[in-house]
């Protein structure tokens, strides 16, 4: 097997160039400041203000009087219950028909009186 040195060298050089260009394109991200936990008498207390800020959606550039965009969970609350797969009294009543809300009577035969094999039946 004969190796082609110029071809391998070209592949290695290309790989190095791609790795260097990938490092250059990475934009420096701004690190969010860490939340500080305070320990008093052995009990750790996190900064709830800081944690709340981290959980908020990122603020976009909009007018101060503009309406706040709603969260996806708020839109789900406005959907009808039958779209969410929840109980819907009207739909269940329609499915059950006129038996919805009535009690069920068991379909059992009358109890048989015990009989003795020694006494003939009449």
From TrEMBL:
This is Uncharacterized protein. It comes from the Bacteria. Residues 1-22 form the signal peptide. Residues 97-122 are annotated as: Disordered. Keywords: Signal.
